[in-house]
Amino acid sequence: MGPSLSSQVKATSPMSTGLSLPQISPEALDPTLGNAQQYPQLVRISWPDSVLSRALIDLLEHFSWDQMSIFVSNDDYGLHGLVDFQLIAGQNGWRIHTLQSFDPTENAADIEVTSQLRVIKDTGARIIVLHCLASYAAEILREASTMDMTGAGWAWVVSDGITALELYGTINGTAIVPDYLQGLLGPIPPSNSGGHSDAFMAKWRAADPTLYPGAGVADIGPYVARWADAVLALAQALRNLQEDGVTVTPQPLDCGCDGSESRPWSDGSVMLQYLKQVETDGVTGYIRFDTTAARLDAEYSIVNLRSDGWQNVGNWNLSTRLDIHSDADIRFAGGATTVVPYISDLNNKTLRVVTIASDGFVEISDVDRDGNNVTGNDRFQGFCMELFSWLSTELGFKYEYYEVEDGQYGIYNSKTGKWTGMVDDVVDGKADISVAIMSITSERQAVADFTLPYYDNGITFAMQKASTRDEESDEPAKEEEDKESGFWEAVWQSFVSLVQLGPEFLPRSLAGRVSAFFWGVGILVAISTYTANLAAFLTVRNVDNSIASAKDLLTQAEISYGVVRTYAPWVSFKTTTTEPYHSLGVVMQANEESFLVDSLQEGLDKMRQEKYALFTDSAELDYAASRQPCDLETIGRVFWQTGYGMLLPKNSKYTVEFNKAILRAEELGVLDELDTKWIKSQECSGTDQTVLESSVIGLQDMLGVFVLVYGGMASALIVLVGEFIHTCAQDVKKTHPHNPLTLMEAMKTRLKRIFSRRKRSGVKNEVQPSKIHPNPAFIVDM
């Protein structure tokens, strides 16, 4: 039976295994002792720390604490005790900021923990899970109090190695709890929940301390009580053996350590089997085991250390899990009732921020949009500035902007061995962080830390939009006069108008011309609409195929191309081996003086004045193309996609804080709002952009054409009737003897002659003036 510590049990277990001698461990908690193949003879009275880990997880989850630091002793008890805790915390998505350990010493007062506590404090986590023995915990918390880590705003969650052992002193039975210990919270295993607890403790209190060391006290603590449980378990196993009529015979044992033959206990396996089958009341609780000889029915009380000692505030067990009492008044360090799990170390710090001007993202001016003079941080506006202001509010820091002196983002100069621009300022410590549209590259990442991208970006190129010229040609119309137009000629004319062929003759009558005019206008609208829609459709399918990708630039010599020489893409073009970008880089290097520009603005001007394509960040080109004068367009797909990030010194302790805040900004839609406000623009929405759409013209859209045609036909009909009546009236006025005498007679005569002409196939009737003296202007044209 024994020993006490897990490390001691591990050391003695091989001997008990070799001798087939069951070993009962009252106190060992190491979860690795649950390996039945490695420790086949071990029976454990205490629940392993893997169960403790579940209780701690539930306790932290109750308070919605998802960030913490862990502090353990550098021994088997400390290192193995919270392995399951870390595993479950990771599965829950919690963040363990740091795991620190200390070396135990024979005298607890000699431990060195200052540096570890400083690391924990610097992480910003305000929840500390402490797993060690009580004697060390008292010294750790005393040292923590000198570092202001035991006041309001801190929470120390401790394991049963602290709650179950003597942590503080008493005077005349009254607890003396120092201020720096008050507020501890953690689980404690039961010490008197078993059916034999009252009887055992009554006898223990009445026992003579001289005969039984430690007797005569009111409470023996949970781990001492486990020894009583171990004895009771053995006694019950022996009783069961006797009741079953099974005899186990004591015999001399020999491990064979001197080279002789080993002699294990022949009845050891029987004894082990009966121990595993024990089910009985104990001192700490009911005693029974699973098939691996691990004790079942794990339970803990949740206790909170106050000025008068440990106070029970809840319970935990494997079946119902955590239950905090409804009337529990839990107080953390400094008497606080709530604790925020994480406080940024940036709180109240003032950061020196380097930046560089970039339209939309960083706009620097001594005058604001209202014309007022501004100074300091007010000179800086834009997407990046508003985002950084939001981060400042989120993380609690202050900042001071300044513009980089050399006007560069930062490239490595192999001749001087130094970086330029903002990268140099951050690396040399002149700036705490750079906030600008700095592309994330592996070269920069090697000397500094980037945050997560706050804006997606890549490389593309832009050119001036292709100009279009309208070519018009006018052909003189051929006039053919004195030609008569009949019904079939009119049908032919309508047909040739539909297909836009020149008719051989035109109607001479006013009604025919009105009808032809309106028909022609309708056909013009229809054909024009169709032509425009077809042109748009073809445009969508084939938009200026001359230059559609970066590869197309290599196959022509009319358009030059380049980059901004101080931007990251220039380095990428010089080092890449991927085609066609490698070949483009070779051409640029060969024509560096004429192809490269010194600034983005110079590149934009060069595109507008020459046949030139500029490769640079897609975000900047999209911004320029969406602003007046709307004469630029981005072409081809985006390649070398990375993003814009903020740059901090290498291994900065603030990087993770900024990353989490940027993720929150994205989740809350802050980045989208800023993008809409500063970058997205509708200035060029009505012009030809890279995204084109073709609309289908439906019948509803063409109703105006039909109204026009039918209106023209109605007008022509009215004119026709009027002209017919007028001509008939002229016939009545004539003095020729064959002329009709009345208007009605004249109309009948005219109609007869019209129909008689239509009956003559292939022959045109010519009306003789001597017979009816017709008005030559009136030729019926159907």
UniProtKB/TrEMBL annotation:
Q: Which GO terms describe its molecular function?
A: ligand-gated monoatomic ion channel activity
Map out region (Disordered) in residue numbers.
Answer: 1-22, 466-485
* Glycoprotein is among the record's keywords: yes
Quote the cellular component terms of the Gene Ontology held in the record.
postsynaptic membrane
Under the heading InterPro entries, the entry gives: ANF_lig-bd_rcpt, Glu/Gly-bd, Ionotropic_Glu_rcpt, Iontro_rcpt_C, Peripla_BP_I
Residue ranges annotated as compositionally biased, kind Acidic residues, are 471-483
Location in the cell reads:
Membrane; Postsynaptic cell membrane
Q: Where are the transmembrane segments?
A: 516-540, 703-725
Report which superkingdom the organism of origin falls in. Answer: Eukaryota
Asked if Transmembrane is a keyword of the record, the answer is: yes
Q: Which UniProt keywords apply?
A: Glycoprotein, Ion channel, Ion transport, Ligand-gated ion channel, Membrane, Postsynaptic cell membrane, Receptor, Synapse, Transmembrane, Transmembrane helix, Transport
Chain ranges of the Ionotropic glutamate receptor L-glutamate and glycine-binding domain: 360-428
Membrane topology of this protein: Multi-pass membrane protein
Q: Which residues form the Ionotropic glutamate receptor C-terminal domain?
A: 350-681
Q: Report the principal subcellular site.
A: membrane
What Pfam family does this protein match (any one)? Lig_chan
Its name, as the record gives it, is: GRIA2 protein
